[in-house]
UniProtKB/TrEMBL annotation:
This is [LysW]-aminoadipate kinase. It comes from the Bacteria. Keywords: Amino-acid biosynthesis, ATP-binding, Kinase, Nucleotide-binding, Transferase. One of its GO terms (molecular function) is ATP binding. It comes from Microbispora triticiradicis. InterPro entries: AceGlu_kinase-like_sf, AcgluKinase_fam, Asp/Glu/Uridylate_kinase, Glu/AcGlu_kinase. The keyword Secreted does not apply. Pfam families: AA_kinase.
Length: 276
């Protein structure tokens, strides 16, 4: 399972040649991508506001009302996925682009209304279309893998409790790292490689040389304070996947020439279980 971060932009395609090499070796590969940065760009292009909400615990996340979810879906499925799929096709990889909703693959439950801060004002937000993943059905990706395809999957997820005929999309925004981790666990993946625009977890976010090379996932809490907002979610997710039994979990740098093979060879931050 290879997750390419939306933060990588055009660099997302750097992983493609590696994917070809892995497929040639006979490995089954699933690609998950994020797209937060593209959604922000698209919102600006369309003149749509982008808003964030801050939860009581201080966690900041995207405020995904129906209009923002539209932009997110357009960005992820309309802008980011097609060039990723066609790049893989050009390399001879039989890539298939999917969202979490396809085949009922990734199901989420809507986050309940919360008392949060939006634009400096505390209020209860009821129209946020974000959710937590509640179930994963790996039948579709397994079927595709068995037939020699490489699924290229991204959020959003499917909300089975969305009202039929309400005009809504029936989709929910979910975190792309979580999405990849849940799929990795459901598919019993040997590797979960999360590529982003940093070398891995850094002790000092401004210093690429301060990389933490290895983290025992039982001791994750000690490392969470090192990470700022978005990296914290990533690290927590990686820890959960490691504890859930994914044997190799790596937070790697997606910007180099051979990012997947480098991560497999030990570059980046590796999470290990039972090291103590
Ligand atoms: N201690 C840290 N070490 C490394 N990165 C950190 C740290 N603290 C905060 N960060 C930030 O976390 C960011 C990576 O998370 P981000 O969600 O932006 O990327 P992504 O997950 O690749 O993209 P997407 O969510 O769109 O898929 C880095 O760009 C960096 O700025
Ligand atoms: Mg992220």
């Amino acid at each position: 399972m290879i997750k390419v971060g939306g933060s990588l932009g055009a660099d997302m395609s750097r992983a493609c040649a590696d994917i070809r090499a892995l497929v040639d070796r006979g490995d089954s590969v699933v690609v998950v991508h994020g797209g937060g940065a593209e959604a922000d760009r698209l919102a600006d292009e369309l003149g749509r506001p982008r808003r964030y909400l801050t939860a009581p615990g201080g966690r900041r996340s995207r405020y995904t009302d129906a209009a923002a979810l539209d932009v997110l879906v357009l960005g992820m499925l309309g802008r980011l996925k097609p060039p990723l799929v066609t790049e893989l096709l050009r390399l001879g990889v039989r890539a298939v682009g999917l969202s979490g909703a396809d085949g009922g693959m990734v199901t989420a439950r809507r986050t309940p209304p919360a008392n949060v801060v939006v634009d400096g004002v505390r209020r209860v937000v009821r129209d946020d279309l974000s959710g937590r993943i509640s179930a994963v059905d790996a039948h579709l990706p397994r079927t595709l893998l068995a037939a020699g395809y490489v699924p290229v999957i991204s959020p959003p997820a499917y909300d089975p409790e969305s009202e039929a005929g309400s005009g809504g999309s029936g989709l929910l925004n979910v975190d792309a790292d979580r999405f990849a981790a849940h799929l990795a666990v459901a598919l019993e993946a040997d590797w979960l490689i999360i590529l982003s625009n940093v070398p891995g977890l850094l002790r000092d976010a401004g210093d690429p040389a301060s990389l933490v090379a290895e983290i025992p996932c039982e001791d994750l809490a000690e490392y969470l304070d090192l990470a700022g907002g978005r990296m914290k979610v990533k690290l927590r997710t990686a820890g959960e996947a490691c504890l859930a039994g994914v044997p190799h979990v790596v937070l790697g740098d997606g910007r180099g020439p051979s990012p997947v093979l480098a991560a497999r060879a030990g570059a980046g931050t590796t999470l290990v279980k039972g090291a103590r």
